[in-house]
Amino acid sequence: MEKQKIAILGGTGALGTGLALRWIKADYPVIIGSRESQKAVAAADHLQEKWGVKVTQATDNVSAAEAGDIVVLTVPFAHQRSTLKSVQTQLKGKILIDVTVALAPPKVARVQLPPEGSAGIIAQNLLGEAVNVVSAFQNVPADALQSEQSSIDCDVLVTGNNVEAREIVIQLAAKAGMRAFHAGPIDNSVATEALTSLLISINKRYKAHSGIRITGIHT
Amino acid sequence: MEKQKIAILGGTGALGTGLALRWIKADYPVIIGSRESQKAVAAADHLQEKWGVKVTQATDNVSAAEAGDIVVLTVPFAHQRSTLKSVQTQLKGKILIDVTVALAPPKVARVQLPPEGSAGIIAQNLLGEAVNVVSAFQNVPADALQSEQSSIDCDVLVTGNNVEAREIVIQLAAKAGMRAFHAGPIDNSVATEALTSLLISINKRYKAHSGIRITGIHT
């Protein structure tokens, strides 16, 4: 079976390129999208130069969403809605892995969630039943992804209303070197997104790059 | 210096008696309070019979709050406000360690936070500046406290607006066998309380007694 194509929208930041790197290494075809396609090309060039890996395509967000079987969103919260609206048609019938965290700059170390509850909930409400929104990777230190170490000392909490879609994301996380768990419906993305601010607060105080591990599970 | 007296309100459940057990073992004077003092006496008797430890006093919540230097609240969310109102005078100038989690039964595995954000925020708003509210111990599996094992495989995320008060709670957690971290202002208790529902969801799916560890900190 051919591997599913992964499109990473807003895939030019540390988290997006880090995920791209790891999935390419795991032999997935990866498409990087950006609002401006030349930024996507620059991110692809960076990955090629620094890590010797080749993205399948670097293009604008709409073309990337169209080409991807699974679509990943890694944009700042302020751009989440506009990006999703621009690719709503292209996402129909697909899984959207939403990595967005509802942060309210400048006080990103303080939990300040939106009235809807979380970015994950906003995405699912906006896209409706036609798209399986899965929220994941909120708590992974971005710099850990771009490293020689194959496994990452942080678990991924995967939330979403569709169990099969969550399972696919859990497998993709494993391919990227992360242990991941089913963590309930999309409403539970409130926890993972709030946790991001709490971890930023820990990072500031302890000069750390913190992450989390789930204990007490025998897998 | 004499050790501070710890009063545990609603201290008859698994979490309250577990904390009592561990602090008594660490030579702290512990007072157990309950709405009905005979329930507190029963919990004290249980601790004596099962673990051979002796609580300093078992009484009603108001007397316990009066007698304690540090007061711990471990009641169901539905009783949080009424309990706090009943001891508001007794708490003045003290630290309140609020262990309450804003759960909305019966769907406790789904994050459903109150309009205020969290039980911790509700407590701080209700009690005002006269009381240093510190939120902690939300993610600790209660059964782990009542065990022979001295150290617990779960970290404690400590939130509150007063750094010194947080530090005292971090030390108390250490005495009870838990590693604890400063995790920001009381607003960040949204994260720890939401995380409780997410861990319950994990427990159901994986038949686990899950907890969390913070990674990436060199302490």
Question: Would you summarize the structure shown here?
Answer:
2 copies of one chain form a homodimer. With about 220 residues, the first copy, chain A, is α/β, with parallel strands linked by helices. Helices cover about 40% and strands about 15% of the residues of chain A.
Describe this structure in words.
Two copies of one chain form a homodimer. Chain A is an alpha/beta fold. In chain A, 41% of the residues lie in helices and 17% in strands. The first copy, chain A, has a single domain (6-206), classed as Rossmann fold (3-Layer(aba) Sandwich), CATH 3.40.50.720. Chain A has helices spanning 14-25, 37-51, 61-67, 80-91, 119-127, 142-145, 163-175, 189-206, and strands at 6-9, 30-34, 57-60, 70-73, 95-98, 132-135, 156-160, 180-182, 211-215. The A-B interface holds A 109-113, 117, 141, 153-154, 157, 159, 181-185, 187-188, 190-192, 194-195, 197-199, 201-202, 205-206, 208-219 and B 109-113, 117, 141, 153-154, 157, 159, 181-185, 187-188, 190-192, 194-195, 197-199, 201-202, 205-206, 208-219.
Continuous helix count of chain A:
8
At the first level of CATH, what is the class of chain A?
Alpha Beta
Strands ordered across the widest β-sheet of chain A:
3-2-1-4-5-6-7-8
CATH homologous superfamily identity of chain A? NAD(P)-binding Rossmann-like Domain
Secondary-structure element order of chain A, as H and E? Answer: EHEHEHEHEHEHEHEHE
Strand content of chain A: 15-25%
Number of strands of chain A: 9
Please, what is the average pLDDT of chain A? 96
Q: What best-fitting shape of chain A do the alpha-carbon axes yield?
A: globular
Number of domains of chain A: 1
Under the CATH scheme, the architecture of chain A is: 3-Layer(aba) Sandwich
Distance between the terminal alpha carbons of chain A, to the nearest Å?
27 Å
Helix content estimate of chain A: 40-55%
CATH fold annotation of chain A: Rossmann fold
Q: Which class of secondary structure composition applies to the elements of chain A?
A: alpha/beta
Unreliable spans of chain A are none
Q: Give the assembly state of these chains.
A: homodimer
Q: Please state the CA-atom Rg of chain A, rounded to the nearest Å.
A: 16 Å
Largest interface: A-B, 42 and 42 residues
> How is the main sheet of chain A built?
8 strands, mixed
